[in-house]
């Protein structure tokens, strides 16, 4: 099977909205567990690692050089609404 024919599996938690990290500039990366960081960034395997302005962990950033860069918004802490 060629590499471009494989199914892609997300690295983050189930049922989370996935966005590009650049689409949420107000979040800050925190190093909650250094064992879950690769050579270039967080692996996303250690759970939530991004905070909002109030300091609450609300998202998981997956951004090491070995995989895709994606941001998983926690479905319990982040939701959409129309105003």
Count of discrete alpha- or pi-helical segments spanning 4 or more residues: 0
Please report the distance between the alpha carbons of the first and last residues. 47 Å
**Would you count the extended β strands for me?**
5
Average pLDDT rating: 80
Supply the key terms.
83 residues; mainly beta; 5-stranded antiparallel β-sheet; 5 strands
List the helices and strands and how they pair.
Layout: E1 17-19, E2 28-29, E3 50-51, E4 57-62, E5 70-73
Antiparallel strand pairs: 1-5, 2-3, 3-4, 4-5
Describe the structure.
The chain is globular. Helix content is 0%, strand content 20%. A hairpin with a 7-residue loop joins strand 4 (57-62) and strand 5 (70-73). Strands 1-5-4-3-2 form a 5-stranded antiparallel sheet, with no helix packed on it. It has one domain (14-73). It is built from no helices and 5 strands. The protein is mainly β.
Produce a short descriptive summary.
Helix content is 0%, strand content 20%. With 83 residues, it is mostly beta strands.
